[in-house]
Records
---
Amino acid sequence: MKTISIIGSGNIGSNLARLFASTHNVVLGSRNPEQTRSKFTGITVTDYAQAAKLANIVVLAVPFSEVTAIAATIGSLAGKTLIDVTNPLTPDFMALTVGHTTSAGEAVQATFPQAHVVKAFNTVLAQVLAKAVSGAKSLPSVLIAGNHAGANAEVMQLAKDAGFGAFDTGPISNARYLEPLAELGIQLAYGKGHGGEVGFTFAPVA
Ligand SMILES: NC(=O)c1ccc[n+]([C@@H]2O[C@H](COP(=O)([O-])OP(=O)(O)OC[C@H]3O[C@@H](n4cnc5c(N)ncnc54)[C@H](OP(=O)(O)O)[C@@H]3O)[C@@H](O)[C@H]2O)c1
């Protein structure tokens, strides 16, 4: 069984931890492990560096603006799969801070050049993850992008095991399109009032 370490115990990190814990060893990394530990049963909670060290797969579930600082704490992650869930959002969440000619995914790959970065789950809202944890029957697609075929396949399986449809969109540069899609989801959910329990599904026409 693989160990999946999630860096950051916020809305996304906490839900992914609970979701993956049914099928994998999960370690949650937190800046304040003692405080965070009291909120989770059956999940190991430790600091960022120890969580990254224990993992086969690391999930970055932190603000994009914090990635460079956190890289100094967790090291190179050489040879590990690194799932990048971040979206480069403005403080009010209603626009992207980078895009079109680059992406947060590519910046994360540049920060961790020896890791196999896979953009994934960034288009899935935290409320949808919470529904997945509570056994929702119909879940949206997880769209992934990364340069390493093996890591992409590993993350696709992880998403499928958690009940999502999963699609490999190609190299990490396709994060340039996945991050705007995430922002579009935020606009629909909160700008247009559809609420957070919505998501994008990629499917053939029947
Ligand atoms: N919310 C969504 O629906 C959603 C959907 C897709 C993608 N995302 C992306 O996923 C990432 C996490 O989002 P989230 O909604 O989980 O955010 P959040 O609830 O604010 O949690 C972020 C976590 O990151 C850690 N962190 C480290 N340095 C931090 C700092 N300086 N300020 C704040 N938190 C810091 C904290 O965990 P510890 O205290 O445990 O260290 C915090 O709980 C973001 O990049 C976001 O754009 C979010």
---
Amino acid sequence: MARNPPIIYLNNAATTWPKPPDVLEAARRSLALPVFGSGRTTGSQGEDYITLAREALSRLLAADPPEHVVFTQNATDSLNLLIQGFLAGQEAGCHVLTTALEHNSVLRPLHEWERQHGIRLTIIPFEGCFVSPAAVRAAIEPDTRLMVMNHGSNVLGSVQEIARIGEILHDHGVYFIVDGAQTAGHIPVNLRELPVDAYAFTGHKGLFGLPGVGGFYLRDPEAIAPIRFGGTGTDSFSLLHPREMPERFEAGTHNYPGLAALAAGVDYIMSAGVEAIAAKAERQTGYLIGELRKAPNITIYNDRPSLPIVSFNIQGMENDDVGFILARGYGIIARTGIHCAPLMHRAIDGGVGCVRLSLSWLTTDDECRIAAEAVREIADNAYSQVSSP
Ligand SMILES: Cc1ncc(COP(=O)(O)O)c(C=O)c1O
């Protein structure tokens, strides 16, 4: 074991690190110069970071028009605004679908609404790493109004068939909100073609932005009631909040250093090419899984992820202990425990949680090799302790 090894950061599904230099520079520059934002400031020097970021996201996700891209604090904030804004316009007690694959940023807003306002919530189980379109169809009832599910799982790294699921939902008049926290920036997403009504994203994961910025794309603004009101810098004599996009859902001062960084992050991944990012992720996770599979005492929970996520446990060891040894002994930062997806953990690992290694476009092959060797070494030690008399 090396002493003071360099850090190998493999917790990118939580937040990406390092950030590309252009991202850091964009944040720094936005604070070093006076701000220029359309409608709010005099002067024309400097950049309109908010519009730049909106246009960048619109290009990346094929989300038209750019004004239908709304900025929030993160994916959680977006999902709250979308879920509550949609359900506010529905009859009390209506039926809502979600899945056992979800993050708490979907499960908690839905369960809170169930407790406070009474919806009937059906949680669709998954098989393998996927929710089957047939199971979604079977769960639809005459008063089903909404389905909320993730595009990509933060534990299994599986990408769901949202195109097929969206078609089925729309055939039955069910509104479809997709949590894209783990897919934006990792795989190509074309919202012009996908039958999705709203797609939530976060800035600090695959988009390489800073924490505290996210957003959503909304096809039909009228479907969601705004629940935040305040200053927009437009129509200031009106005592009611503007209903035009994107102001309809944006109130108060934007996180413009965060948006400047987000625009730079999106430019960065678009110049790398999202297809190339996805292909590298598949290759590196394939390698890691292949290596981990060689150990007889490692349980891998995702066989062929489409996202750069590998989740596992070493038999007979607490996952927290594995994470501790990885960090202390090898300088590898992983994530352990319950990854904010309680229903999934109950299904895959009996609720004990697991170790997750998650990569980014900046993860090197060498880092993957070192991580694979480290996990194998920990597993081999555990195995020899169990098998020695
Ligand atoms: C699938 C999924 N949804 C939502 C979120 C929430 O993202 P944020 O913390 O940026 O709001 C995460 C973050 O881990 C996630 O993995």
